[in-house]
Amino acid sequence: MDFFKKTLGISLFLSSFAIAKAQNPSDILGVWLTADARSKIEITERNGKYFGSIAWIDQPNDASGKPRKDLENPESSLRSKSILGLENLKNFVWDKSDKRWEDGTIYDPRNGETYACQITLKSDAKLEVRGYLGLPAFGRTEVWVKSK
Known about the structure:
Largest sheet: 8 strands, antiparallel, barrel
Low-confidence stretches: 3-20
CATH class: Mainly Beta
Distance between the termini: 47 Å
Strand order of the largest sheet: 1-2-3-4-5-6-7-8
Shape: globular
């Protein structure tokens, strides 16, 4: 029984370091490579909220050699905007108690959909990005890595 208690105690102690990685709201800042490695998102802060813009895409031009546009956007007036530079993460706020960024949205230009989203720093080099509809349980998580 003592072995079990000691092992559990050590495990909890070590896991507290992994959970406690994000100590500051600014830990999210920087450029992140998406899970499919097809784009990089630069996350910045404005007035206490966090936003992300597409800083790089693997295929910036369409078949005719022109910059890719946001053709799937549900707002027809925005379909002429370039994908490169598009703000696709909006209005995230730091939740100190949960140690994550919440209450934001993520926009997917491939399908024109916007999802509720929360972001958790898993290590200095990994973000867990969860987009969902309604409740976080009904979503998908991707891991983004810090880009150099």
